[in-house]
Amino acid sequence: MPHESKPSRPFWRSLDELVGTPQFKDWATAEFTPEALEAPAGTSRREMMKLAAASFVLMTLASCSRAPEQEIVPHVHAPKGRTPQKPQFFATTLTRGREAIGVIVTSQEGRPTKIEGNPKHPASLGATDTFAQAEVLALCDPDRSQSVIRDKSISTWDAFSNEIMHRLSTAGSFASVRLLTGPVISPSMLDQIDRLLKQFQGVQWHVHEPAGETEAAAAHRTIFKQEVQPSYDLSSAKVILSFDCDLFFGIPGSVRYARDFANGRRVRSGAKAESMNRLYVAEPSPTITGSKADHRRIAKPSELPQWIESIAAKLGVAGATDHDTSDAWLNAVAKDLQSNLSHSLVAAGAGLPAESHDWVVRINAALGSTNRTIFYRPISSPAHRDLSSLTADVEAGKVQTLIAFEVNPVYDSPEFAAVLKKIEWKAHVGLYRDETAAACDWHVPMTHALESWGDAIAYDGTASPIQPLIAPLYGGKSPREVLALLLGEPLKSDYDLVAGYWRGKIGAGAFDAWWQASLRDGVMAKPAPESSLGLAALPAKSAPPTTHPVAANLSALQAVFRISSSTYDGRYANNAWLQELPDPITKLTWDNTAWLSPATADRFGLANGDVIQIDSGGVKIEAPAYIVPGQADSTVTLPLGYGRKLAGSLGSGVGFNAYLIRPRLSGALALVTIEKTGRTYPLSTTQEHSKMEGRDLFRTVAIAEFNEPREKKVVSLSLYPDRLKAPQQWGLSIDLTACIGCNACAIACQAENNIPIVGKEEIARGREMSWIRIDRYFEGEAEDPEIHHQPVPCMQCENAPCETVCPVGATQHSEDGLNDMVYNRCIGTRYCSNNCPYKVRRFNFFQYTDIEHESLQIQRNPQVTVRSRGVMEKCTYCVQRIRNAQIEAEIDPTHPSQSVADGVIQTACQQVCPTQAIVFGDIWDPKSRVVGLKSQPHDYALLEELNTRPRTTYLAEVKNPNTSLAKGARS
Amino acid sequence: MAIAGVIGIVGVTCLVAYGWDRSSYSTHQYLYVEQPVPFSHQHHVTALGIDCRYCHTSVEKSGFAGIPPTSTCMNCHQQIWTEADVLKPIRDSWQQDKPIHWNRVNRLPDFVFFNHSIHVNKGVGCVECHGQVDQMPLTYAAQPMTMQWCLDCHRDPSGHLRPKDQITSMTWKPPAAKEERVAQQKWLMASYQIHPVGLTDCSTCHR
Fold first, then answer.
1. Which pLDDT value is given to residue A542?
2. What are phi and psi of A221, to 5 degrees?
3. Closest-CA residue to A759 (of A630, A654, A883)
4. Would you call A85 and B206 a contact, using CB atoms and an 8 Å cutoff?
5. Distance of residue A877 Cα from the nearest chain B Cα, in angstroms
6. SS3 for A625?
7. Nearest to A449 by CA among A469, A422, A429, A432
């Protein structure tokens, strides 16, 4: 691996950079942003001196304030088991669609402030995704619905319950009463629904999930004759082939999949190619899964079904025809799969038609993967139908009463708004007064998952409890309480309902001990998950062959619909952390865009931000175009989850609503035409911010060359003796092979360190506040690049350039190697940021932290200063965790120790990381994990030639390419 | 002349500001604080002999020493002085389940993260920062609690340590003889394993 400062391969971060446009050069070389040069006009030298003198005197006088009066308000009765100022930890579960992820919530003085993964929960293993991290903010969102609403005016729960009971008792036939929910994975709630359907014969239950895998479910129903939940075991898969399946994002189990995948790739000194798994991805639009592929192939959506069938044929699946006999890529992949029988896996994404999912089941059976790397777990639930059957029934005049729980079909199913109007009486239960709530007669505010009791079944069938961390902030009822009302059990509390269900399941005698253990562990030891179905005999293929409309003219593009990395299906639209989180691929914030390939954009004469009109069979929407390297030509990717009208004060009116033109069947191929409108739309992306001048920042190596001898590292010279004296010296290692670019670290850091959001306009000025940014690099051709991710926190340089330039000593070196930042000393000269070669310092240009909304204050970490305007801030290696752990070690009554054991301190980014790419520890302890990683041959430091001696170093990304597939054969 | 004037004005402003900042008016040192109940540490500690940790329960294990919940007061006061007027706020709090709002006596800015447990476990006695609480009929801050005052000890803690069993003692004094005192200081530093390295790091207190 080379160690000179010029990169050996062409790495680039944006097309503007690759081409070298004048705008990019201006942006990159400008010392100041245009705003910084706006000097006040017409101020004379004399006036300037007067102002300076006056401000000096005022500043001095301002420091003469007296310390503010404060109160201490102790409890009347001290809560059991709580020590003041000591965090408590509670295990619970967060759910989203069919995903259930076990978490451990940190509660400080009774307030949930931080969410960590539960190491005992199979879907988490200690990590979480971005959405779970942001749930603490969702909990205290001041825009959450706070009262029962009837016809736009405030009402009460009692009035609601009277009216609904009256309706039920006077309804002639219950067939006109419908329940509409999202997917239900809670056993106790399924039981309630089951009892409800039995008690009120005729009531029907409809399940609606805009981001659901309807086509896969349909295929599986045909094959298995029942509903199943597929799940993967990537830990035993040596060869993985994904057809547009984003394994590491947004699907049930994705956090676990990322861990298992990374575990199969942690190559260390001396490793051979056989010790690494291999990932092939064929997809129309880049995903984080595709960016980790050893071979990523760009495919149009229309090509994928045929490829899947060809792979099936190559693997000898009966009935399949090989359409691509001479396709080198498919041949090589099929051969690789075949030579790893029962250790290979083929996965298909939600956008593929049922027929493709059918083939994939057969392919996995042929590979011997069923029940080895892929499992089909039967799901038992009361009979239910979907939203389209509800629509049909309403049109037929069969529905008079509708109760909708936690769904927003008025937003995500455009035709449903008109349908809903035809229902005589409709009620909505949800966290927000959203589009559907506004269209209903009644709205009941719902409790957040951190405010209620419950239970959930994870992707692999493990059951886990949900317990509240705080009493409902805004009142509200859980869906279980509403169902209990219908069932005539209005006095039962949330707890009674959940515990009562499990008491019946477990038996009264054993219940208490089992329940306490379940709440403690966050996992229910019993009942064992239902075992997955075997595949003794697959039924003959019955799904109809896919027919694809042929593009009528050249301008027709194939549309790809994706759940958003920020808002999921739209439910997190009002979550500021997620809205401001840069997309892993485009690095865009606060917007969605129409993704186009460079060639397609060229064909239509489009540049980034040009507004295009997208026409799908007469339905037209407008969206800003964005050129995405690695996108398939003649396709357009439209992220869902934006364009909300009633999301809240932050999320309403952000982006465009792609649901408006999404075909009703998720597997159907959508053809659209696009047209340039001539207008442009400003976009805020972070991708060119904090540029490090194209030096050798990202390093990658193929496994075959991994063990080749390389040049010695740069020898660090210093005139000064090593001056640090503390017994433990902190350092961080980031494994770029493991990093999937999922952004979980960035949002965990935000939650842990009270990092504010700044908004779209400020991002455009380069003022984002994230302490850890994930740089995304492209490598190679603009049309088909490789994509890399590199998290960049503060390097905690031993020779820190920032420290030497601070005029007030606000940034100092600690004896244990941290680059301390002292907010109360900082006067905001920003010299430090200017002198930082890694551009990791962030400045509060304005009062970014929201100090007005009281509810937001409960989330803030009391162990970290809340910064105000005019203060520089940056990553501290979570110094509050270090110092607290040191105190704990020193006062430990049994083993008081000067040093903290390896692994006890985890930084927030490390703890959340699904792939354990980040390891923190003592670099002076030869046995610590971090030293083991830093002594690897592929360890390197960013800009090490500057002799800053960074404490954060990287392990170069190792890939495992198939030698029979040369680089040129990728497409 | 003008320059000297400017320098003079600036200098005087600085001096006044500095003087203000260090005055006990600004730091609240020695100033009694009104409380809803005129709680006397002198009475409870000296006359009754109650240990500090009976009320400040978490001082040895948490950053916060703990202000007793109403229930702690009522442990005794549902038996004695049950009718006393001064204790009415306590009884009201108990009966109405409403917490008492005490006024803070020892205050630190929000950007200072002080931790009681590490100090108490490393031999810093209560008296060191809070003074002779047993002599206070009404409680006041005995020390200025400025950064300079903190650093005096963090730079060299040896003169501020005492044996573990004397932490809460209000009367313990180090040996009078200098040699003996120095020997004890050395021994205490060693037995508590205190290495002043890093004690003055910014992030020791500011995070």
1. 64
2. -60, -40
3. A654
4. no
5. 11
6. strand
7. A469
CA distance B173 to B162: 9
Copy the structure tokens of residue A199: 């008690």
Contacts of B27 in chain A (CB under 8 A): 67
Neighbour count for residue A583 (Cβ, 10 Å): 24
Q: Is the C-alpha dihedral spanning A723, A729, A730, A731 positive or negative? A: positive
ipTM comes to: 0.93
Q: Verify whether the Cβ–Cβ distance A67 to B118 is below 8 Å.
A: no
**What pTM was estimated for this model as a whole?**
0.91
Core vs surface per residue A923-933: b (16+ CB within 10 A) or e:
bbbeebbbbbb
DSSP secondary structure string for all residues of A169-202: HH-S-GGGEEEEES----HHHHHHHHHHHHHSTT
Q: What's the alpha-carbon Rg for chain A, to the nearest Å? A: 29
- Cα A566 to chain center, whole Å? 7
Residues of chain A with pLDDT under 50: 1-6, 968-971
User: Which stretches of A708-848 are assigned E, i.e. beta strand?
Assistant: 730-735, 773-779, 786-792, 811-813, 819-821, 842-843
- Give residues with Cβ within 8 angstroms of B38, minimum separation 6: B86, B138
Is residue A377 within 8 Å of residue A461, measured between CB atoms? Answer: yes
Q: Do A60 and B14 touch (CB under 8 A)?
A: yes
Nearest CA to A344 out of A233, A238, A245, A262 is that of A238
**A621: helix, coil or strand?**
strand
Question: A688, A698, A947, A689: which is closest to A839 by C-alpha?
Answer: A689
Cα A792 from Cα A749, distance rounded (Å)? 12
Closest CA relative to residue A424, chosen from A760, A176, A192: A176
The structure tokens listed for A211 are 């981001």
Q: What angle in degrees, to the nearest 10, is found between the helix axes of A157-170 and A479-486?
A: 40
Q: Which residue has 């692994």 as its token pair? A: A903
Tens digits of residue pLDDT in A651-669: 999 999 999 998 877 667 7
